[in-house]
Request: fold
Amino acid sequence: MANDLIANLNSPAERRKQVRLRVRPDLQTFEQKYEGKSFTVIKDPVCLRYYRFNKQEHFVFQLFDGKHTMEEVQEAFEDEFKPMRLEQSDLEGFARQLVTAGLVQNEQPGSAQHLFQRRAKQRRLRRLATLSNILYLKIPVFDPDRLLTWMFRYLSWVFTTWFFAASVGLMLAAVVHVTLHFNTFQAKLPAYQEFFTWNSVLYMWISLGIVKVIHEFGHGLSCKAFGGECHEMGVLLMCLSPALYANVTDAWTLADKWKRIIISFAGIYVELVIASLATFVWWYTPVYPVINNIALCIMVLCSVSTVMFNANPLMRFDGYYILADWLEVPNLREKANKFLNNLFQAKCLGIDVPPEAYMAPWRKWLFLIYAVASWVYRWVVTFSILWFFADFMGPKLKVLSQMLAIMSLASLFIWPGYKLIKNIRQRGRLPDMKAARVYVTLAVFASLLLAFFFLPLPVSRVHETGLVAVDPDALEAVMLAEPARLESLADVGPGQQVRRGQLLAAFKSEALEIELRKAKAISNEQWSTVELMNTSAANARRTGNDAADKQYAAEAKKARAKAETADADVGRLLARKSHLEELKAPRDGMLVTAPKRDEIGKLYDRGYTDAPPVFAVGDPGRLILKVPVTPMHFRVLKDDLAARGELEASVYAKGRSDRTFSGKLRKLPAQNAATVPLALTQRGGGSLAVKPSEDPNVLIPLAQVYLVEIEMTDSDTAIDPGQLAVVKIHARWRSGAWWVARALSNSLDIGLY
Reply:
């Protein structure tokens, strides 16, 4: 039927005689102000769509009453708005738009069928659009208007001044509380791996559903409070988590844009109130782990995620509608995308597109920037969420990660490309293209594609935070020869300079003391035996007993030998004791390793060859950086190191912004790190997450990591061992296609690299 009507409009002989259009009687009309001018909003109750007409457009729209022909409409317009002229082609174009939108129909039988066909087509398009956004699926379920009317009778006090003041005071109290106790607040927050456990994710999943139900009822009740209607609610799958959504597009019938903004902001406001309450619950319930974790999840969901997603105008959530109402630009994204699409077709393909109505230059730039920024932001957010899912679910759910990645690629690239090609092909537009512009566009596109696949870029550089340490080859260790207990420490600690022979600590070995007492006892016993044998030999000589004299003399000689041996043992034991009691620096340099003060009295069982040193003194001029790298980066470094022999590195030390230090990577570890230094972990200020072990002093990385050593070639006294520094390892440049393939392969586990 629509085709017959358009065919009639294209017949110059018949259109003034036969074509009479009639506005659908079920349409609803509302007045609205925009930039100081009056406009009329037309509501389509069947499709739940809204159209805004200016004064001239609405005048023509009203003349489509089934009685006026197109020619009569033209004459009436020119009489009303003298000296303006209305070209017949412009009138026909306006009529075609109304017919396509389903707002007008002719008087022929069966014309209503077109309306239902259009409604069915619109539903199909909505389903396709829904499937194209896998992280935000909406499924209509019921009409909540009667439920909202009933709820509003009991919740109208929410829209009073006193409740607004109380809720704002609650939010300010939460902000002030967090600000005053920020250090404690930050310390109480769990680390990434501690927060995103299965229990926390389950709490977040349930909390998100409940919070979003309250959020959407906030929209619906606000719309009801200002006289609007809400005729659609349904299930919302946001990031695969079930929630509720409310269609409050009826707010466009309100003349006051600030009321529309309040309706859009209502959900965010409700979540901020909930986040404020959850903040105090979380702060004061550390002894109740379940309640504490749930409150933390709600606090994060209703504050950080609400600001990042709901309040962000680049995504089609509440912030988008707030911005559209504030700018007074309905369907902001569609208009921006249409403007960008028409600009591309006109400038790049040379296709004649319908001319845009006058638009201020700032608004053209707004549409252009918004269309590009919203697409890029949607791309970044989608892949960030997919990366989190892949990282959280792990290799056991590899297939699900692959499916999500493929569906997101289809929604972000394939579907928009399909719509663009379809738009170009419709109505025979291919012959309308200007060959020169098409060739230039194809050349530019081909150049970008070649650059993407072949142009070397610094995308493979490894950028991590490393720990400054003394080169192990320049370290001299102070070892314990046997287990001993720390008695005292000298007034010197790691990072301080020491001199050769300087006292470091005093140890005491109980086993050595026992052995020393035994050796002294043996020595005393043997010397007593020597003295006794000498006395007996002297008595035998006085009595002339030569045989006894010789026997006693031999026994004395044996006892003397044993006594001298015992004395030697005592001397060695005393030397060992002296070494323990006065543990000294073996060289000039910097003290790198030393016990802590609270370890005085601790037994050091380090009397074996491979034990770590108690003290270590090194050359402060020979420094390295221990840099943790992921297996993905390790493979890159391994390939490049095999090809080049060594890799350059740039080191950025804290407090030394005046210069960049240099380093070299000459070798790689044979295997991944079993333990990591405290400074590189989240506890010590680094980024590595660790898991608990039997020994609290042994830190085991939660994920596989390699500790790469960078040799600094131009260090100075401003860099001290133990501090953190940012390291950039200059790997071979690679193409953007390589970077994308590697990121997808390692983040989403889809086997591209």
User: Anything to note?
Assistant: The two ends are 54 Å apart (CA to CA). The first strand starts at residue 20 and ends at 23. The mean pLDDT is 77.
